[in-house]
Amino acid sequence: MEDTSSSSGLMRTQSDQLVETISATMRSPRVSSDWGAEMEGSSRKSMSKGGGISASPGGGGSTSSRHIRKTRSAQMKFDVDELNSGATLSRASSASMGFSFTAFTVRPSDIADSRPFSDDDDHIPEDIETGTLKKIQTKPTLPIYLKFTEVTYKVIIKGVTFTTEKNILHGITGSANPGEVLALMGPSGSGKTTLLSVLGGRVGETNQRGSITYNDQPYTKFLKSRIGFVTQDDVLFPHLTVKETLTYAALLRLPKTLTKQEKEQRATDVISELGLERCQDSMIGGSYVRGISGGERKRVCIGNDIINNPSLLLLDEPTSGLDSTTALRIVQLLQDIAEAGKTVITTIHQPSSRLYHKFDKLILLGKGSMLYFGKASEAMIYFSSIGCSPLISMNPAEFLLDLANGNLNDVSVPGELKDRMQIGNSERVQIGNSDRERKNRKPSPAVVHEYLVEAYEMRVAESEKKNLMIPVPIDEETKSKVYFEKQKYGASWRKQFGILFWRGLKERRHDYFSWLRLSQIVTTAIIVGLLWWQSDGNNAEELHDQAGLLFFIAVFWGYFPVFTAIFTFPQERAMLNKERAADMLET
Ligand SMILES: Nc1ncnc2c1ncn2[C@@H]1O[C@H](COP(=O)(O)OP(=O)(O)OP(=O)(O)O)[C@@H](O)[C@H]1O
């Protein structure tokens, strides 16, 4: 007891001393300029985004605030490491230091970007599920600057007697640069998955309009291997272990120039980067087999798609069904991947406020239309500028989803919408509604949606489109790589056959040697044995009988494996589609 109290006392003392030291340091003009210089030099992310296009309602300076956040984090880590004290001290001192540092160095213009609920700098040091994580370390890849302008998409619904068209996306414009995480948010059915698929080149071009460019070049099939696409449903083999899954992915996807050992090493590296060491020998699991947890499964899916170091990573609802801590861990991982120079786009349903503040950019969709595109941290400012502000303290994501659903409960009603409602009110007065009812009346979701779409079109859309006209800040040779240079297949046709054969065998070993399958065979053998018991074949009739036995055996062993094989096709179809879409297989 005494020990504990004395150590906590010591921690407090150290914490106080640290705060005093920092405050004194802050007061010194010389040190402050040094820190400023250090900030300029130390921000990896700001370097990766240097010269990038600012495409947010906030206009210029898109990198500066993030730059400040990252360097502040680095500075804090340095000081805390020096003190080598406990977690309590590091948290207390980070908080104090974060406040002093921000107050001292951040320009007023950047204060708008400060994240009130954000815990951006608290890189989760330890994964509660899996232990300490390694930082994502990948070789540099071709940076991909993605721009999309006025993207529309429709599906043609064919009935028995009629054919109709359904417009799903209505003129979506935006961009995502290397080093950034762009979140696509919106209510269910607003078109997030469709937009993600369109951006990933996963839908037919015939029903799609508008311009989508990758480093100012149109989509080509060569991009398939540079784009990682993590689908909403986990497409994994349930009976393979985590290590087997990632090793087979490495063997199939990594270039032929690497040896088998190097490919296996890459799989091991990804396992430790994603914090999957503890469960690497556990089966993935599925509907009938208990396996790894949902968060681990999501990380395996991400690992599958980052193993070949893609330049653009698209994820469909990577946090759905996960608790807020695991979801935060996944988004932190996406942030790390982006920091390694990748462009990351993810759809997200209802993030917590901490999670929301981890996104760099945001697209808010409502019924397939743009309601907002810009910095995630400026979304609230934008909506308050058009008259929609939360009246109570609210998670920004919840507020934005309410708006996208046309729900203005606990949200201020813009003057223009009030005017539109006046007409409705006067009609209601005639039918005798009370004052209270009239006062509480809210505009209908359709009216709110129309207003938000119009506001975005009038205030932001044009300037965003102009921003997208600026060429991407890379040289022509690098740009053309998107168009001409294809990542090589991981293995020759023969090797691929071997890898897929062994993978199939490992996946099915439980099935083939299951008790059910063995008892099926043994039971058939016993029945057949009993039927032909003591048939010695001495006369023509018994010989005929034995010919029947041979016929039965031939038919049984001919059809039994064929039927088993036929039923594996539907099971493997999703994986086959996924691997073909990612250009993993030579066809
Ligand atoms: N092939 C299709 N045929 C008919 N309707 C479609 C098709 N694809 C998408 N839709 C419709 O387009 C709309 C947008 O679908 P999408 O899957 O992109 O939404 P979402 O925002 O991702 O939804 P969720 O968050 O629920 O996954 C939905 O109303 C959906 O029914």
UniProtKB/TrEMBL annotation:
Biased composition (Gly residues): 49-62
InterPro entries linked: AAA+_ATPase, ABC2_TM, ABC_transporter-like_ATP-bd, ABC_transporter-like_CS, ABCG_dom, ABCG_transporters, P-loop_NTPase
MF (Gene Ontology): ABC-type transporter activity; ATP binding; ATP hydrolysis activity
Membrane spanning residue stretches: 515-535, 547-569
Localization per record: Membrane
Bias (Polar residues): 1-26, 424-433
Domain ABC transporter: residue ranges: 146-392
Membrane topology, record value: Multi-pass membrane protein
GO cellular component: membrane
Record region (Disordered): 1-70, 424-443
Keywords attached to this entry: ATP-binding, Hydrolase, Membrane, Nucleotide-binding, Transmembrane, Transmembrane helix, Transport
Gene3D superfamilies on file: P-loop containing nucleotide triphosphate hydrolases (3.40.50.300)
Broad class of where this protein is predominantly found: membrane
Family recorded in the similarity comment: Belongs to the ABC transporter superfamily. ABCG family. Eye pigment precursor importer (TC 3.A.1.204) subfamily.
Protein name: Pigment permease, P-loop containing nucleoside triphosphate hydrolase
